[in-house]
Each structure stands twice: as structure tokens, then as C-alpha cells.
Design goal:
InterPro entries: COS_domain (IPR017903), TRIM/RBCC (IPR050143), TRIM63_RING-HC (IPR042667), Znf-RING_euk (IPR027370), Znf_B-box (IPR000315), Znf_RING (IPR001841), Znf_RING/FYVE/PHD (IPR013083), Znf_RING_CS (IPR017907). The chain has 346 residues and is mainly alpha-helical. The chain is 56% helix and 7% strand.
């Protein structure tokens, strides 16, 4: 974590330092002990343990007599996969530097005077601070608006209580959206595997087809090219469909990730009134985004290319009529011929 460069860019080093000390899970200042991940991002050990336990529900906790291997989870900041040993998050190294910085920061903050002049003021009563929340109109306002102004007949509540409630709701929405992003990432991984298997299966049936045609290449060369083209066409259609799905899911993931970043930035807003001016619309956007669009998926067995197989146990005179599944048609013709011959004999 490069604290020096980040602090130089900001006119208020203490405020910028506080942003650097926020845990990406609980969105509060790091709680000791602080652990550092292999990707160099930091987490409260309790928060790291929570997401590790959620990603590995069958992992044995510390102190258990049952010996189990470790597990894995993704860093909430960069999505890098963290592989744990049998000690779980307790095997991660503590970041003593960050812990010392937290102690120094808290000591410095306790000795600083409170800043003034940053509280939003009422537009209707310019000398009044916004200090209450109108539950009826769902907007922050001032006491004068409640006593004499447009919110006189409205139901109001203390600003701090509504601020904490909506902040908690926004935190829940972020958690829900992050979980949705994990599911989308899983689908993308599955689609990438599907793409790989489709290519492998296509290659396999092409090789089998080529080997069978090599024995009678002189008279089957033209037919071989035709059938290979059909396999290639099927492959391209499937891969095009999978590529389109991957792009759709990636776009959805990018959109959700940007929305998460916007929401986290909103949570950094220290003023309750300023926060509430945008929180409602932001929460609505996150809820709508978390529902997601119903994107398509590949059906079971989509990667299967086994139907592109041939039975070459034919006589040479019938080779030019060969097609996928032609053997079944020949068997049906043989059955019809035998039946007709039997009817004639009767």
C-alpha cells in the first residue's frame, strides 16, 4: 500500500490517510489484527475469516481435531484468488506497519479540533443546517422547515438515525451486488471451459474423420472436405454463441463493478446530509442492477460433438452417398426391402 504518494496528492493528508485505512469488507477502519494478502491488499483478520468461511463452508475451524487441507477465496479489492493452507486466515502474515499507522492516526485524531463549516445548509433557510430527515417526503431538511416551512405537516426523524439506516441498507446492497458478481464470474469461467472443451471435441472428431477417410482417400477426398466444413460450421456457430454469452456477462460484470465503486465512494462521505442527498437513488440503482438481466446459458451437452461420427463399413459403390447418420437410413431401407420381399412371397 503506497501511503506516501497517496498523501502527497491530497491537500488534507489526515483525511486521505483515513481512506487508505478503510477495510474493503466492513468499510470501517481496519480492526487489528490486520492481515496482508499475497496480492498486497489488507483486510481485518475477522473480515478475511468471514469471507473465507463463506467461500469454504466445510473448512474445519481452528482447534478442531480433524485435519483438513486449506481453502481459497478471492481478494475483494482485485479479485485475485488467494489459496490458503490448513491454518486458513490465521496463516496469513500480519501487517504490523498498517497496525502502527492506525495507532498513530487514532492518537493524532484524538488531539485534533473538530472542523467546522462543512455541514450542508438548508436552501430555504440559508442560516439553518440540515439536521432532520422528512420521512414523508424522503428528503433531509432543517428544523425551520419543520416548524414553519413546507414540511410542517410531515413526519420527521433525527438525521443520524436515518443516516445509519440507509448506510446499513447500502452496505447490504453492496454485499448483494458483490455476491452477484462472483456468480457472474463463475459463469464466465464455466463458459470459458465450455469454449475450450468445444474446441477440443471439434478437433477430436476432425481427427477421427480424417483417419477414416485416409483409407479411401482417392474417392472420398471431395466428400471429406464437405463433411469437415460442416463440422467447422457447427463449431463456429457454437463458439460464436459462447463468445457472445461471455461478452454479455463481462459487460454485466463491468457495469456492476463500476456501480460498486461508486457506492463505496459514496460511503466515504462523512456528512450524513450530503450522503442522503444521493443515497436513495444510488440504492435504487444497485437494487435494479442486482436483479440482473436474464442472460442465456448453454444447455447440458452443448459442447458434445459426438454426432459427427461415421461408420465406414460400406461397400465401395455406396461411398459417394455417405453422410452423417446414413447407416441408420440404410438399415431402415434394408428393413423395408425385407418386409416388402416377405409380403411378395406371401
Amino acid at each position: 500500500m503506497d501511503y506516501k504518494s497517496s498523501l502527497i496528492q491530497d491537500g488534507n493528508p489526515m483525511e486521505n490517510l483515513e481512506k487508505q485505512l478503510i477495510c474493503p469488507i466492513c468499510l470501517e477502519m481496519f480492526t487489528k489484527p490486520v492481515v496482508i494478502l499475497p496480492c498486497q491488499h489488507n483486510l481485518c483478520r475477522k473480515c478475511a475469516n468471514d469471507i473465507f468461511q463463506a467461500a469454504n463452508p466445510y473448512w474445519t475451524s481452528r482447534g478442531s481435531s480433524v485435519s483438513m487441507s486449506g481453502g481459497r477465496f478471492r481478494c475483494p479489492t482485485c479479485r485475485h484468488e488467494v489459496i490458503m493452507d490448513r491454518h486458513g486466515v490465521y496463516g496469513l502474515q500480519r501487517n504490523l506497519l498498517v497496525e502502527n499507522i492506525i495507532d498513530i492516526y487514532k492518537q493524532e485524531c484524538s488531539s485534533r479540533p473538530l472542523q467546522k463549516g462543512s455541514h450542508p445548509m438548508c436552501k430555504e433557510h440559508e442560516d439553518e443546517k440540515i439536521n432532520i430527515y422528512c420521512l414523508t417526503c424522503e428528503v433531509p431538511t432543517c428544523s425551520m422547515c419543520k416548524v414553519f416551512g413546507i414540511h410542517k405537516a410531515c413526519e420527521v426523524a433525527p438525521l443520524q438515525s436515518v443516516f445509519q439506516g440507509q448506510k446499513t441498507e447500502l452496505n447490504n446492497c453492496i454485499s448483494m451486488l458483490v455476491a452477484g458478481n462472483d456468480r457472474v464470474q463463475t459463469i464466465i469461467t464455466q463458459l470459458e471451459d465450455s469454449r475450450r472443451v468445444t474446441k477440443e471435441n471439434s478437433h477430436q472428431v476432425k481427427e477421427e474423420l480424417s483417419q477414416k477417410f485416409d483409407t479411401l482417400y482417392a474417392i472420398l477426398d471431395e466428400k471429406k472436405s464437405e463433411l469437415l466444413q460442416r463440422i467447422t460450421q457447427e463449431q463456429e456457430e457454437k463458439l460464436s454463441f459462447i463468445e457472445a454469452l461471455i461478452q454479455q456477462y463481462q459487460e454485466q460484470l463491468d457495469k456492476s463493478t463500476k456501480l460498486v465503486e461508486t457506492a463505496i465512494q459514496s460511503l466515504d462521505e462523512p456528512g450524513g446530509a450530503t450522503f442522503l442527498l444521493t443515497a436513495k437513488q444510488l440504492i435504487k440503482s444497485i437494487v435494479e442492477a442486482s436483479k440482473g438481466c436474464q442472460l442465456g446459458k448453454t444447455e447440458q451437452g452443448f459442447e458434445n460433438m459426438d454426432f459427427f461420427t461415421l461408420d465406414l463399413e460400406h461397400i465401395a459403390d455406396a461411398l459417394r452417398a455417405i453422410d452423417f447418420g446414413a447407416a441408420e437410413d440404410d438399415e431402415d431401407d434394408d428393413v423395408d426391402t425385407k418386409k416388402q420381399k416377405t409380403d411378395e412371397d406371401d
